[in-house]
Amino acid sequence: MGERVVVIGSGPAGWAAAAACRQEGLTVVLVAPDPSAPFRNGYGVWADEVDGLGLGDIFSRRWPGVRVYFEPGEGQRLPRAYGRVDNARLHAALREKAEGTETVAGKVAFVATEGGRVELDDGRTLPADVVVDASGHESSLVHHGAGPQPGWQVALGWRLEVERPHPWPVGEAVLMDFRRADPADPETARWPTFLYALPEDDRRVFVEETVLVSRPVRTLEAVRARLERRLALHGVKGFKIIEEERCFIPMGGPPAPLPQSVVAFGGAARMVHPATGYLLARVLRTAPRLSRALRSAFDEGLDPWARSERAWEAVWPKTERGAHDLARFGMEVLLDLDTEGTAEFFRTFFSTPPERWESYLAGGARAGDVRAAMLSVFGKAGWGLRFRLARAGFGPNGNLLRRALFVR
Q: Whole-angstrom Cα distance, residue 159 to residue 154?
């Protein structure tokens, strides 16, 4: 029996899967239109979620803590290290671990796993014992179950070089600033956005205006206008845009029905956290679990369907599916909140013990930990927010909450 894993996609999920499989001694073929393409998106992660994964220093900058703002004042400091990923370093670290991976430039047209082949749109055929689809959110190779339309996270980020020192302390990142970008504009009260700021030095800073989640999707033009007003409010007027980042992230769809012959991973598997948009750390931490599952499936001589089933269980174990349902419920709650309500929610959220909010934010958390975090928020919430949370529990999305309550 062969041990040939074909990985589709050359983003962080694809290379993380390839690297982990190579570490288990599996034969890996990575296929993508440009297998060597640099990673495009910008990533910020909690440092403790990726430290210890054997990737070395993958950060362009690390901050010992972050600050969150919900109203005028000094905000709240969260003493948890946060880092901005250097994509070139991450790419190099994963490719080094994936040494021996064969790369194929091409676009996948069809996967016939029962027949053990991947067909490319130019007619070439690749033999495969397992296919891992890490091609991203728009993949058509994996079937997803019916469910509500996704919410959308929309963000516009600028890396700036400013003429005068900017107002953000260099030794601290701003995770969320929910203070209204333009208090005179009623629109800022109706739909919330927050500022995310990563200062490099006193003249360079990455700033990003983010719609945490919305349905329907907000336009990039509206977010751009909000960011411009935000910068003016902070007195940042003379600046040069060094880099621009844009993101549209679908959030909250149900995980794929299990099992399926093609194994999805990363965005294709809807591993994005439904209430935060985080994905990278979860991908990096889950890839070794996926590769170990494949290694054991090959060692036990499982047939192709059973191998895929074993791999799916590694990507989406039952308890993480329960946690995902709870986070989807949390996303639906956020969709119903205006700026004031969203700020109140997160002010309450970050007032809970650190182990509670850290577990909720973590990709791949267990359902029990997420339940504990949500109960902690409910217990600390004011009566207005508590009423909205209770109302959501009895609403059309309450089934997500009720179903997850019994997952251990």
A: 17
Dist. CA 63–CA 139, nearest whole Å: 35
The winner for highest mean pLDDT among 5-19, 168-182, 227-241, 374-388 is 5-19
**Cβ pair 250, 288 in contact under 8 A:** no
> Which structure tokens are listed for 57?
């220093």
CB 176 within 8 A of CB 346: yes
User: Quick one: which H or E segment has residue 2?
Assistant: none
263 phi and psi angles, rounded to 5 deg: -95, 115
Q: What is the reported pLDDT for 116?
A: 86
What distances in angstroms separate CA 365 from CA 51, 160, 323, one per listed residue? 17, 35, 6
| 3-class DSSP assignment, residue 245 | strand
Strands lying side by side in the sheet with 102-105: 102-105, 27-32, 4-8, 130-133, 263-264
Per-residue pLDDT band at 404 (split at 50, 70, 90): low
Here the tokens at position 18 are 């390839």
| Main-chain phi, psi angles of 119, to 5 degrees | -100, 135
Do you know the residue count of the chain?
408
Rounded to an integer, the average pLDDT of 111-135 is 92
Residue 239, SS3 per DSSP: strand
Express each pLDDT in 138-157 by its tens digit: 888 988 877 777 899 999 99
Question: Tokens for 319?
Answer: 């308890």
Task: Summarize the confidence of residues 187-197 as an average pLDDT.
Answer: 90
Answer yes or no: are the C-beta atoms of 131 and 119 closer than 8 Å.
no
* pLDDT greater than 60 at residue 39: yes
387, amino acid identity: F
Q: What distance separates the 2 farthest-apart alpha carbons in the chain?
A: 68
Six-digit token pair at 199? 């200062």
Query: Measured between alpha carbons, how far is 250 from 232 in angstroms, rounded to an integer?
Result: 30
CA distances from 396 to 106, 216, 384 (A): 43, 18, 20
